[in-house]
Amino acid sequence: MKFARDTWLIFQRQIQLLLRNPVWVFVGVFQPVMYLLLFAPLLKPALNAPTQAAAYKIFVPGLLVLLAIFGGLFQGFGLIAELRAGVIERSRVTPISRLALLLGRSLRDVVSLLVQAVIITLLALIFDLRVFIGDLLLAYLMLALIALMTSAVSYGVALKVKSEDALAPLMNTVAQPVLLLSGILLPLTFAPGWLQGIANWNPFSWAVDGTRALFAGDLGSDKVWQGLSITAVLAALGVYWAARQFARSVR
Amino acid sequence: MIETRGLRKSFRSRAGRETKTVDAVRGVDLDVAKGEIFGFLGPNGAGKTTTLRMLATLIEPDGGEATIAGADLRKDPAEVRRRIGYVPQGGSTWDESTAREELVLHARMYGISKADAQRRAARALDAFQLTEYADRKCKTYSGGQRRRVEIALGIIHEPKIVFLDEPTTGLDPQSRAHMWDEIRRLRADGMTVFITTHYLDEADALCDRIAIMDNGEVVAEGTPTELKREISGDVVLVGLDLAATPQAAQTLDGEPYVNKLETVDEGGLRLYVDEGATAIPQVLRRLDHAGLELRSIELHRPSLDDVFLTKTGRSLRES
Ligand SMILES: Nc1ncnc2c1ncn2[C@@H]1O[C@H](COP(=O)(O)OP(=O)(O)O)[C@@H](O)[C@H]1O
Ligand SMILES: [Mg+2]
After folding, report:
1. Greater confidence, A234 or A191?
2. CB B50 less than 6 A from any atom of ligand 1
3. What is the pLDDT of residue A249?
4. Is A251 near ligand 1, meaning CB less than 6 Å away?
5. How many whole angstroms from B33 Cα to the centroid of ligand 2?
6. Distance B50 CA to ligand 1 centre (A)
7. Where in this chain does the entry annotate a coiled-coil region (chain B) (predicted)?
8. What are the residue boundaries of the structural domains of chain A, listed by start?
9. What global pTM score does this model have?
10. I need a surface site. Which of A174, A228, B82, B223 has the fewest CB within 10 A?
11. What is the CATH architecture assignment of B2-93+141-228?
C-alpha cells in the first residue's frame, strides 16, 4: 500500500516535469513519425514484400522495439542530472520506498514509450497495417517490459558511474551490438548461420521475433510466449538490481 | 539527542591502477543536547559531510554506533529517517520545479497526506518569506532564496533534529545574517540543529557548542567561550618604532604579569599575558616611566582560530 502510494507519487512528479518540457514532448512524437514517413517508401522493395502492408508488419514491430530499447537506455542521463542537483540524496533521507524511487521513474518511461507506440500504430493503420487488438495489446506488453528493463538498467548504471562522460560510451557500446544482432530493422532470416547463432543469445532478438509474430497475427507461435517470458524475467532482474543501487548509492 | 561512539568511515578511491584508502572519519564521539545549535567546525576535507551523511543514513558507517533522537542508527535507520531532516551541502532543489511543488512533494515522501502537505508548504513558505516566489521555478531564485527553500524542505515534516551541511557557504553577507536568524528561529521552535561550517565567525556567533574537526577526528569540543578560555590568556600588541623596540623589550621583560615576550620584526612587541585588561595600564605606565613613546596598543583575545592552531598546528584560515 505504502509502496504503491510512493511509486505513484514519484510517477506523478516525473510525468508533470515531462509535460512541462514542450521540446521533449515534440521530439518524442516527431521522431517516430519521421521514421515511419521517411522509411515508408523504402520498405516494400527493401524487404522484398508483396505489399506495403506486409512490409509494415515486419518493420513496425522492429521500430517499436528499437524505440523501447533506446528510449530506456538513455534515461540514465536525466538521473545523473537529478543526482547532481541533490534531488536523489534528498529523497533518500526520507522513508520513501527505494523501489518506488526507481519504479516511479521507470513507469514514466514506459508510459511515454507506449504513447509513442500508439501514435506509430495509428499512423501505420493509414498505410494499411492491420493488427488484431488483442495481439496488439500483448505486443504493447512486450514493449512495456523492454522499456522497463532498459530504463531500470540505465538508472542503475547511472547511479554506479555517476557521470555522463562514463554513461554515454557505455550505453552506446551496449546498444550497438544489441541493435545490430536483434534483426530489429531488417529480419535476420537472410543472415548467415553464424550470425543467427549469435543472435540467439540476444534477448532482444527474441523480443523482436515475438513482437513480429504478434503483428503477424500468429498468437499461437512459440516465439510469443518465449519473447514475453524472456523480457519479463530480464525486466524483473533489471528492476531488482537497479532498486538496490537506489538503496545504497554513495553520493 | 545525538550520541555517537567511534563512528568511522573510509573510502576506497581508484587513481589509475592504484587503490587508495582515505580515512575520512576516524572514530568520532559526539554528544549533542536537545535544543542546541551544535556546530561542526573544520577545514574542507575534514570529514564533516561524511559524518553528517552517516548520521542521516545515507552511507553506512564502517564502525561505531550512534543513537539519533532515540533511534539506533544501525538497527533502525528507517526510524532515524522519520525523526531527522537533512539539508545537503550542494543543494537539493530541481531547476524546473517550483518551491511549492518541491515542498509538497517532499512532505508527501514522508507519508504526509496531500492536503496536509499543501498546508505545511504554505506555512513554510510564509515562515521563510518565500510566498512571493513560491510558484516560480527554482532556477530563477537567488542563492539566498534557494537556500531558504532547501532549509524549509529539511524541516517540512517537523523533525526533532535537522542537519544543515554548510548552510551559509556561498551566500553574501546579508543573506548569511538572514540565514543565521532562520537557524536561531529553528532552535526557538525547539528543534536541535546540527550545522557544519568552515567559518570561524559563524561557529563563534551562532553555535551553542562546537566540535572542531580535522583530518577525520574531533580535536576539541565545548562552547566557544570554553574553548577559547583553554588557550591561556590574552595577547597585547605594543606598536613601537624599530629603534625603541630593544629598550622597551628590556624594560618589560621580567615584569610579573608578562608570561612571554616576543619582538615583532617591523618594530613592536607581542606580550602574552593572563588578563589583557589589567596588563595594559601597567604596560603603559612602565613605558611612560622609561620615556618610551608608543605608537599603538592593541588587545588581542584568543579566537577559535587560535584554538584550531594550538590543536592542529595549522591556521584554519590557511587550510
Ligand atoms: N564518496 C567518496 N569517495 C571517496 N572519497 C570521499 C568520498 N566522500 C568524501 N571523500 C573524502 O573524504 C574526506 C572527507 O570529506 P568530507 O566529509 O566531504 O569533508 P568536509 O565535508 O569536512 O569538507 C575527503 O578527503 C574526501 O575527499
Ligand atoms: Mg563538506
Report:
1. A234
2. yes
3. 59
4. yes
5. 22
6. 6
7. none
8. 2-247
9. 0.85
10. B223
11. 3-Layer(aba) Sandwich (3.40)
